[in-house]
Amino acid sequence: MRKLSMDELNRDSVEDFKNKKKLPLTLILDNVRSLNNVGSVFRTADAFMVEKIYLCGITGTPPHRDIEKTALGATESVQWEHVPGTLDLVKQLQAQGYNIVSVEQAENSIMLHEFVPEPEQQYAFVLGNEVFGVEQEVVSLSDVVLEIPQFGTKHSLNISVATGVVVWDFLSKVIR
Question: What positions does the domain tRNA/rRNA methyltransferase SpoU type occupy (predicted)?
């Protein structure tokens, strides 16, 4: 077995990628502090054809070298927008028909493996600040709160890791 070369991977150009139909999933970053985490989320969004990323509050925005270091150009392929407040955005997206899903540890949360996305429904997953998580007001307004089961001694995952886990899980369930 040998590794494939970059040419053999047959990846789309940025322009072709932008014109493709995307996963019915938007990501909302709620006051994420680490620019490396932001860049990693962009790269994950590119890999799994996420529709859009909203960068809320203090979340850093491109162009920035620390974002680009981990995004590796995904800031050019993935649609994104900065908005001042997560709560106002969530209300706006709900009015447009999105199901808002906070990824958080909360009362009555649904374990990720038990979550069943509705066909043809648009989803917006909210991922929170590295220390404080998703704002309580946003969690309270969410249609669903998803929790990633964890079995070790730590109480949370890095936001970029959590994003990869929930986006892959969502993709694997909607492409069946």
Answer: 25-167
Number of separate domains in the chain: 1
**Residue in 86, 58, 82 with CA at minimum distance from that of residue 142:** 86
Residue 176 confidence (pLDDT) above 80: no
155 pLDDT more than 90? no
CB count within 10 Å of CB 123 equals 21
* Lookup: tokens for 137: 């007001």
Query: How far is residue 66's CA from residue 37's CA, in Å, rounded to a whole number?
Result: 9
For 8, 25, 61, the CA distances from 122, given in Å and listed in that order, are 33, 6, 24
Residue 71 sits in a domain whose CATH number is 3.40.1280.10
Whether 13 is in a domain gets the answer no
Instruction: Please work out, in degrees rounded to the nearest 5, the angle formed at the alpha carbon of residue 42 by the alpha carbons of 50 and 124.
Output: 40
pTM score, whole prediction = 0.95
In angstroms, the CA 146 to CA 115 distance is 8
What is the pLDDT, as a whole number, of residue 175? 87
- In what helix (H) or strand (E) does residue 65 lie, and over which residues does it extend? helix 65-71
Nearest of 124, 120, 54 to residue 95 by alpha carbon: 124
Per DSSP, the three-state class of 31 is coil
Of the chain, the end-to-end C-alpha distance in Å amounts to 28
Confidence class for position 90, pLDDT limits 50, 70, 90: very high
pLDDT at 57 exceeding the cut of 80: yes
